[in-house]
Amino acid sequence: MKKIQMVDLQGQYAKIKEDVNNSIEQVLSTSAYINGPLVHEFQKNLEKYLDVKHVIPCANGTDALQIAMMGLGLEQGDEVITADFTFAATVEVIALLKLTPVLVDVDAKNFNIDIDALKKAITPKTKAIVPVHLFGQVANMDAIMEIAKEHNLYVIEDNAQAIGANYTFKNGKKQKAGTIGNVGTTSFFPSKNLGCYGDGGAIFTNDDKLAHTIRGIVNHGMYTRYYHDVVGVNSRLDSIQAGVLKAKLPNLNEYCNARRNAARFYNNAFAENSNIITPTAKSNATNHCNQICDVCDCHVFHQYTLQITNGKRDALHKHLLDKGIPNAIYYPVALHAQKAYTDKRYNESDFPVTNQLIETVISLPMHTELENEQLEFITKTIINFVG
Ligand SMILES: *Cc1c(COP(=O)(O)O)cnc(C)c1O
Fold this sequence. Notes:
14 strands, about 375 residues, about 40% helix
């Protein structure tokens, strides 16, 4: 059996080596390292794939969030609601821009922002909601868009973990994650579902005016060269990374399927175990099934995350490492409890689900190259231990 890895970038590269190398050589042969033709080509290809009018590439997923918020003209004191259970980048940029982060609890069924908690957090100062499509599963966008419309709020989708996922609305309409709100953002960090070989990110929108504003912001606030109309940043996707992404994008659907297949194997293996809660991939809007089928492509499994309910999570974490099975706790601390983001406004009783998840979650190896033999070993080892 091959050594098990949390993410297998080497194995994936081996299969697309020629395409990736050709792209990189193309950049090297032209020396167009910044804003070269491959950046534009990748942008166009991604617009087509996502069926969105504008993709604006940038330097990383954190910048993408920051630039999206700058583009919407959010100002000091504006309240921005996001989930308590996520990677810190989301709340970090809210705080950096001197906006007021408002963290709310999540839903234990899908790890995404809890709709009732979201509704309760809205005040006259609320300006935007940032749903994070955590672990690759799209949040309840039917409800979120309805709430946003009712209260006149912007929706910024943090789609760093769910590129390629489809969301099916109640009325049957399908749309790609990240293209539903006013603006969506993503990260091309190497381990993300569409990763480059360095840092990268992008912003998506169907709003022509917002796209224009954002294109200036990523480039020092310039709309005409050397005329700075607004305060901007320097945030670029370099041509070599764009080349890697252009070579990988045609494989994204296949990558999503490979992840879903691994998730299905895991879910089937743990189905009978009463101490393990497996992730569901049920769309909030549809009732297709509780399992991971090809109809419900609302989940692209950036992470495969279990909840261990018999108190053995930490012991399992160590046991798996001893057996050579990498695994991780995403996330070990709730954002409202992080030193940088504590706030007197928060009560522990506001976060029952997040506080429970940080004690029970464990993420298993998840990538495009997992083999059945490895999956069998992982699942057997877990079932033997958890009982
Ligand atoms: C990875 C990630 C980011 C940040 O992306 P970078 O490219 O690392 O800056 C933001 N939000 C979420 C949910 C992420 O997973």
